[in-house]
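Blinded run. Sample ID left blank on purpose so nobody reads anything into the name before looking at the predicted structure. Input follows.
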Amino acid sequence: MESTVVRNATGIARLELERQETLEKLEHLRLDLLNLAEPTADETDVDAYEREKILGLVQSLRRKLESLDRAMEWAQKGNYGICENCGERIDPARLEILPQTTLCLRCQRDLERRNRQERF
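Blinded prediction complete.
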């Protein structure tokens, strides 16, 4: 069984790597935005579409950074791989795909279900 200290150290290293890669992607998108022609009154739909697509990706990556920072704080408290809601271990396969997750699959589904119900 993996010790908590090793799990947290491994988790923090993975989160730091994922954070660095995300920051690099954000920088590339920022450069892409700078390289797009300045919008004009007769801007083509293609440029507008491309700009909106990039801005959407930037927003998504910023949310990911927030999740990574939250997961790093959770891991630094010694809780990497432990669901912050129910306290159960998060499936290692889930952590492999989403190292920034702080919720097990069951709690994530419950949260999403509650969020959907609140919207309606």
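Unblinding after everyone has recorded impressions. The mean pLDDT is 88.
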